[in-house]
């Protein structure tokens, strides 16, 4: 018990330190390369913060814990919308007296995020995500990323200091180590409490693997990089379905339980639809409260199964 609590504490501290280094260097490199910070947020930042989902889901899937793997993907996407993006909106409003102004391209990317959510529901309806469906999801994800970099970039200011790839990599490494320690501690506590595997995946692991996104988006919001705060969430949700689930299904077909199809996936679709509508507007406390409401409803539905 004490070891699990220690892991949680150290992990959270490393998440904060890693996010600060990572976001600073990602923004500087984006400006040096002539790429918009929004595109960097949807691709580089989102991919880096989705690495825990990739590792956890692949490890769980290859070891026969399919419910944990799928639960992690769905739970992480719900956490990104209802915890990460909601927290960024509320932090900006109540702590800094500002609203989040999403970048123009975020509307298109929000539509892509919704399309991937519907794709997830479609491939899950028959109770299994096959290898061919996994390959299709992967193909769509890489096509989306290639299309992103063909978009014209907005003119950005020159960075005050140069970005550094080694410092960027260091930030990612610290983020991942912090996420690993936090997840280890949280899962140990959940298992000790006798919580079922699917619920652990949907909640503890799903939220745990969203901690890099949470740290990244809150840091971006605090530093005024609102486009990264929003783009990170959108890009991560797309990557979780297209990249993580695609890879997982390619390695081994993923069974989908009836509870996921009837309860959690429809709720994820509704939350994604709400988020797509909200990113069209300046996002403040109302947007944060709506998204947080979906997350609380998600947790309430899970608690009813215990």
Q: What gyration radius follows from the Cα positions, in whole Å?
A: 18 Å
Number of helices: 12
CATH topology: A middle domain of Talin 1
Which CATH top level class fits? Mainly Alpha
Question: Could you tell me the strand content as a percent range?
Answer: under 5%
As for the number of domains, it is 1
Strand order within the widest sheet? 1-2
Give the terminus-to-terminus CA distance. Answer: 22 Å
Shape: globular
State the low-pLDDT regions, or none.
Answer: 155-160
User: CATH superfamily, please?
Assistant: NCX, central ion-binding region
Task: Indicate the structural class.
Answer: mainly alpha
CATH architecture type:
Up-down Bundle
What does this structure look like?
The chain is built from twelve helices and two strands, in the order αααααβαααααβαα. The chain has one domain: NCX, central ion-binding region (A middle domain of Talin 1). The model is unreliable at 155-160 (pLDDT under 50). Helix 1 runs antiparallel to helix 2, helix 4 packs parallel to helix 8 and helix 9 runs antiparallel to helix 10 (226-251). The chain has a two-stranded antiparallel sheet. Helices cover 79% and strands 1% of the residues. With 306 residues, the chain is mainly alpha-helical.
């Amino acid at each position: 018990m004490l070891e699990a609590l220690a892991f949680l504490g150290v992990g959270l501290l490393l998440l904060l330190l890693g996010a600060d280094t990572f976001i600073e260097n990602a923004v500087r490199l984006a400006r040096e390369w002539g790429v918009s910070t929004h595109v960097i947020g949807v691709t580089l930042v989102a991919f880096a913060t989705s690495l825990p989902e990739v590792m956890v889901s692949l490890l769980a899937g290859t070891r026969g814990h399919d419910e944990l793997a799928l639960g992690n993907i769905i739970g992480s996407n719900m956490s990104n919308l209802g915890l990460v993006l909601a927290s960024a909106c509320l932090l900006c409003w109540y702590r800094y007296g500002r609203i989040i102004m999403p970048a123009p391209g975020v509307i298109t990317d929000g539509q892509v995020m919704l399309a991937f959510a519907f794709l997830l529901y479609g491939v899950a309806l028959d109770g299994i995500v096959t290898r061919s469906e996994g390959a299709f999801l992967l193909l769509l994800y890489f096509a989306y990323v290639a299309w992103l970099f063909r978009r014209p970039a907005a003119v950005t200011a020159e960075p005050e200091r140069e970005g550094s790839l080694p410092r960027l990599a260091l930030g990612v490494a610290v983020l991942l180590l912090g996420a690993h320690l936090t997840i280890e501690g949280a899962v140990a506590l959940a298992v000790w409490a006798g919580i079922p595997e699917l619920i652990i995946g949907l909640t503890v692991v799903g939220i745990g693997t969203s901690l890099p996104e949470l740290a990244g988006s809150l840091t971006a919001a605090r530093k005024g990089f609102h486009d990264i705060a929003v783009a990170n969430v959108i890009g991560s949700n797309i990557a979780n379905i297209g990249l993580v689930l695609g890879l997982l299904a390619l390695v081994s077909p993923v069974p989908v339980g009836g509870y996921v199809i009837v309860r959690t996936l429809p709720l994820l679709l509704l939350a994604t639809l709400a988020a797509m509508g909200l990113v069209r507007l300046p996002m403040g406390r109302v947007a944060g409260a709506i998204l947080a409401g979906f997350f609380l409803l998600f947790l309430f539905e899970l608690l009813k199964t215990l």
